[in-house]
Amino acid sequence: MPTVPALATAGADQDLKRSTIERREPGAHDVVIDIAFSGVCHSDIHQARSEWGAGNFPMVPGHEIAGTVSAIGAEVSRYQVGDRVGVGCFVDSCRECENCVAGEEQYCLKGNVGTYNGRGYDGEITYGGYSTQVVVNENYVLGIPEAVALDAAAPLLCAGITLYSPLKHWQAGPGKRVAIIGLGGLGHMGVKIAHAMGAEVTVLSQTLSKAADGKRLGADHYYATSDEQTFKDLRNQFDLIINTVSANLNMDAYLSLLRLNGTLVNVGLPTEPASYQTFSLVGGRRSLAGSMIGGIRETQEMLDFCAKHGFGADIEVIGIDEVNEAYKRVLASDVRFRFVIDIATLHAPATS
Ligand code: NAP
Ligand code: ZN
Ligand code: ZN
């Protein structure tokens, strides 16, 4: 089995350190991907710190993977050596349950196999994109269109699809008022995609410090949630609110911003349970919902949509030795808008 360089953490209270992992020999339906870029998702931090339950250590995070095919198994038909490809949050699913058959593999009834911190159906722990190479069944590999650079494409594989899927499901489009809570990695993709879909987009951020960026990304309106007046001005305004925040919010305050029949969709995944008053829902026949990434077919559709509209993510490219610092900056909401690791720096000697 090939041994490849990786950035791994040994435990929930440890920093990430350079290490090595073993990748499997490619099977008949496997694609070997030389990773060029790997996005840093807030979920990487939650999992590396065991905030969602005990993680599998050593852990190599990374589920926003972009690179090129370097080898294929004998039966692979969808990809060729040299193709620009991506891998998102899962690398396998049962392929038989009703959700898999419907192309909603992320909701596989037997549990999808996470790209990292998961266990394959063979029992092996999975390792993610903070490494130089990954081996994935061709059915779980996405094609990255030429129009999107690989570094800006990487975050689409999680942040992009996590916003595209609910925006499409709840029919964001012309005549719809959509609000995005939190202008981080997920939120900024929500603004771009909802705007491209034709919706009227409002950002609800803690402060106005990123307002100019928000407008540039496509927001029509921008409000600070630290200002109480915001909740008075925006009462009963929105058809759809997508909450990307990684901490619990005052749900009742945000539900009051929905108009009749509006829906608030949670995609952010705080560690503590959330609460709300049932009155906040029944008063306007409102819905409180959740959504998780998207299926393979829909992820490809999202990549093609972004290419057609000429955008990827807004990124800050970092070296492999800067990832621990980047985690701290993500936690401080100090990122515009996604850190992406240049995996070439993992091949090069350490800088510190
Ligand atoms: P991120 O880049 O850190 O963005 C989160 C944003 O939320 C911040 O930029 C900040 O925006 C706002 N925020 C942070 N702390 C806050 C607080 N205490 N109160 C109010 N607002 C706060 O994170 P991300 O990568 O976008 O991920 C966001 C969440 O989604 C994480 O919990 C992650 O695990 C989850 N996630 C879910 C899925 C899914 O499939 N459902 C997929 C990927 C990630 P402002 O500065 O604009 O206020
Ligand atoms: Zn993610
Ligand atoms: Zn399934």
From TrEMBL:
The coenzyme or cofactor needed here is: Zn(2+)
The protein here is known as alcohol dehydrogenase (NADP(+))
UniProt xrefs under Pfam families = ADH_N, ADH_zinc_N
Write down the top EC class of this protein. oxidoreductase
GO MF terms here are: alcohol dehydrogenase (NADP+) activity; zinc ion binding
Enzyme Commission number(s): 1.1.1.2
CDD domains on file: CAD1 (cd05283)
UniProt catalytic activity: a primary alcohol + NADP(+) = an aldehyde + NADPH + H(+)
Name the keywords, alphabetized.
Metal-binding, Oxidoreductase, Zinc
User: PANTHER family under this entry?
Assistant: ALDEHYDE REDUCTASE
* Family that this chain belongs to: Belongs to the zinc-containing alcohol dehydrogenase family.
Domain named Enoyl reductase (ER) is located at 11-341
